[in-house]
Amino acid sequence: MAGxxxxxxxxxxxxxxxxxxxxxxxxxxxxxDARVHNYTWDISYQYKSPDCFEKLAVTVNGEAPGPTIRATxxxxxxxxxxxxxxxxxxxxxxxxxRQIDTPWADGVAGVTQCPILPGETFAYKxxxxxxxxxxxxxxxxxxxxxxxxxxxxxxxxxxIVEPFSYDEEHTVLLGDWWHKSVYEQATGLTETPFVFVxxxxxxLINGRxxxxxxxxxxxxxxxxxxxxxxxxxxxxxxxKTYLLxxxxxxxxxxxxxxxxxxxxxxxxADGYYVRPFVVKNxxxxxxxxxxxxxxxxxxxxxxxxxxxxxxxRNASQTPSGKAIVSYAFKGNNPWIPPPxxxxxxxxxxxxxxxxxxxxxxxAHPRFVEPMPAGADRTLLLLNTQNRIDGHIKWTINxxxxxxxxxxxxxxxxxxxxxxYDQRPPSDTYDHMSYDISAPAPxxxxxxxPVYRLALGSVVDVVLQNSNMLNNKSETxxxxxxxxxxxxxxxxxxxxxxxxxxxxxxxxxxxIMKNTVPLHNDGWTAVRFRADNPGVWLFHCHIEAHVxxxxxxxxxxxxxxxxxxxxxxxxxxxxKGLH
Amino acid sequence: MAGxxxxxxxxxxxxxxxxxxxxxxxxxxxxxDARVHNYTWDISYQYKSPDCFEKLAVTVNGEAPGPTIRATxxxxxxxxxxxxxxxxxxxxxxxxxRQIDTPWADGVAGVTQCPILPGETFAYKxxxxxxxxxxxxxxxxxxxxxxxxxxxxxxxxxxIVEPFSYDEEHTVLLGDWWHKSVYEQATGLTETPFVFVxxxxxxLINGRxxxxxxxxxxxxxxxxxxxxxxxxxxxxxxxKTYLLxxxxxxxxxxxxxxxxxxxxxxxxADGYYVRPFVVKNxxxxxxxxxxxxxxxxxxxxxxxxxxxxxxxRNASQTPSGKAIVSYAFKGNNPWIPPPxxxxxxxxxxxxxxxxxxxxxxxAHPRFVEPMPAGADRTLLLLNTQNRIDGHIKWTINxxxxxxxxxxxxxxxxxxxxxxYDQRPPSDTYDHMSYDISAPAPxxxxxxxPVYRLALGSVVDVVLQNSNMLNNKSETxxxxxxxxxxxxxxxxxxxxxxxxxxxxxxxxxxxIMKNTVPLHNDGWTAVRFRADNPGVWLFHCHIEAHVxxxxxxxxxxxxxxxxxxxxxxxxxxxxKGLH
Lengths: 578, 578
Fold this sequence. Notes:
2 copies of one chain form a homodimer. Chain A has helices spanning about 15-35, 180-190, 350-360, 410-415, 500-505, 545, and strands spanning about 35-50, 55-60, 70, 75-85, 90-95, 120-125, 130-140, 150-155, 170-175, 200-205, 230-235, 240-250, 255-260, 265-270, 270-280, 280-285, 290-295, 305-310, 320-325, 375-390, 390-395, 400, 445, 450-455, 460-465, 475-480, 485-490, 510-515, 515-520, 520-530, 535-540, 550-555.
């Protein structure tokens, strides 16, 4: 399996070279104008009613979601995070930001830092080196479920022209929401018998959802709370075009998003321009962002539904996420619900149309990122479930990842060889004989190993789905920290490295992303250059799944990482370190 | 106020000298036979139904309360605490153990150690140098409310005769219990408007209580759960005498405990033998322990109620704690509830009988601990509420205590002068003119100071109660870490150091304790010798109150503290320390 996985490269588009120049000059521009944005965030529990049911949420300065960070390419962001959670730690990940030269600011407790203790303040400082739509969220245990999340919008510098135009932009943050606490969810996942998280009680659009209060115990739900219910998403002026920056930070759900009566033209994915394509429903997986253009071209005398629905999982008890797209028309009340029934959304179990959309995403012809022709190393990663010591765990090539008490970054930089598992995990699995539709194997282990990648090497990863212990397969959005990857392709069934799989891979104009779905009963292949010194998590973005061990850790160029800030230390074996 | 507060000493009982010898020889004996008891505890959230309502509890090896630690005087206890709370830290205090030479094992996050992070193991190692009944519990934020607590029973060495005899002994751990989480309670205390914790939903005896499930949302309460409801407390053989080691770790409630139809003879308090006295109701405050003798001298053909009731606070919605004292009699089912109605308990607002009982506790004549004749320093501590920055706080002489990010013990030992507040708190308040029945003053501040005591000096502390912001006064059990104190006396109204207060103080045979009630509308005076190098918390043992700042910190002999274990470090300014 070592060496090149792909056949010799076909010539890259001529446009790619031009792009390369274009990016450089934009970066220069950005640096010249670079600003520093300072934020001070108090992280605390507050009572919130995002879907009318009142419960505690982890908030940023009292709000959930947190504020949108807005900056321009090349700017520096400084967020002083003050943990006021009383007894619970935290860490915040800046999702999609590669953290070049600042691997300690990636915000993954156990990988890049010790968690931030109650009463302490931690300063995240990093450069937003690429324009696009990004996210942030808690990255500690399953804490993201409790509400700490938000968006990051990085604009192109003045003078740089994007390959599309619009009149106004808006952010659309999608989520799912439970009435039980994170602790209750996590306890179910660790107890025997195992209890998986339920379907979410609601879907949120920009932090608001609707729940039928008659289903809740009295006194816990207030249908007229100002925090919840329908709200205008934006006001459309007839004839104008809107850019919606859409991000999903669901904890569990794959979603379909649509705006009733309006088509959406997808123009950006995870910070990269795509060859524009039109959808009615945008399928979006946790950790992904898309920018879409919407033209206000419908009857302006009424309002329209914006709606999100769970797909890929039967969540019929979960009401759809709903908001109002209101038209600016004389006499039209932007808060009046549309006269129509909300969209029903696509069938939750129609995998085909979801895979089709994944396959329809290519780099914009003028913005193809040059891809290395072949890989130096290929990882074939089997995603499956194992029952280990009586607990259900996710394993990748037989390893269920548990974060060590000492963060990998500190342990590896300081040569603490007892702080994590020195036995390397396997680059492959028994792909010749493994039956991906059979019950899971029983030889999994819970460990803390790391894939050590040669700095600058090119790595292909093929994620291989398989049946869970319940003999079903489901979609997993995989997110890579510290890098973007080229999406080589998606396939059904089992990836066969020796045979026809090559034909399916797109080496001509693959989109780059940081999060990609691994569809049920199939595989997904990506390529990245291990050129960012640090230690980086690669994991399923479903909170319960990574909690159950569904991730791997990559290290590259640890010797090139700069001096670690003492603020990331203090846990495990780093208690006594300067 | 400095110097001696008390008049010249009256001669101590002749017995005291004899006791002194007796204690030494018992200690020698103990050391000769000393054993090491090793425990490994996993601390995790588990679903529990102590009062039939199912909710998450912080457990020790899956149980709440945790196991009773049993040892003999002079033994060493080692508890390896493995934090499996996922995102929440912990620390465990060994309540009543003075931690001589091991101040770092006192288990108070923020004072004696950094909290134990999820995934980490912390070893508490200490000697139980005195026989008696002690407690343990979480000491981090308000985490004790979530259930981590238990008892420590230290026996006298073989050959040592106690001043009473009995046939069998049993432990009785009293608690109160809420259906809301710690997070919900803490959020209410910090939000605006302020929401104080409700009356508890139930009272627990040895971790079991009863709640009327018809009051709970469907599916949350199971009246036939094996975890809850009535259970035999012990089986009495007619004519035999039982020692009940009773401890209270309520989070809020002062309690009355009784056994229907049986009187109780109090023989020990907080590890010290008392001049025996008989009660029908034992008033016990959070953090206190008492041993009582109960003789099985009633009609053996039936069972009897053991019951706890809230006193000092109107908690009419809280059902009493109930258990069964069953008689070993042919045909008698130990699980059959007694034929009588459960005791109603004393009137909750009868302060007089509670104060009377406090005043009835003296040292056993043969075990009077010699007390220094006078004090080197006197602290007159006004307990009151302040509204600070819109929040209701408890203040002591105007200071609402907040723990610094760096534990005091580390900060002071290492000379980190910026880690805590260098401005000393005041030894007194304006006792001449302050009106303890008037609304609280408005000049309180939230700070992290410390009282620095001369090593070996004798300190008198007079706790002065006053009205809260609601113009009422209530009972506060004050607990001192690292020391026992002589209880000099209790008084009504305002303590006047210059006048008749002296007459009320008992210098002849004061009992020693580690927890003492400060009754409503009154004062309590104690004396201790600051002879234990370390940093020690002294605080109200009501979880919500210490969370609101109701405590002070004492330091003595920090230069005599041995080398700090690195395991207590890692937070605040101790991140970079060996």
